Amino acid sequence: MRILIAEDEKDLNNIIRQKLISDGYSVDSCYDGREAIEILSYAEYDGVILDIMMPKADGFEVLRSLRESGKTTPVLFLTAKDAVSDRVKGLDSGANDYLIKPFSFEELSARLRAMMRTSFGVAGTILSVSDLTMDCARHLVKRGGHEISLSAKEYELLEYLMYNQGIVLSRDKIEDHIWNFNYEGGTNVVDVYISYLRKKVDGGHDNKLIHTVRGKGYVLREADKK
Question: Which of the four pLDDT bands, split at 50, 70 and 90, describes residue 124?
Answer without folding.
Answer: confident
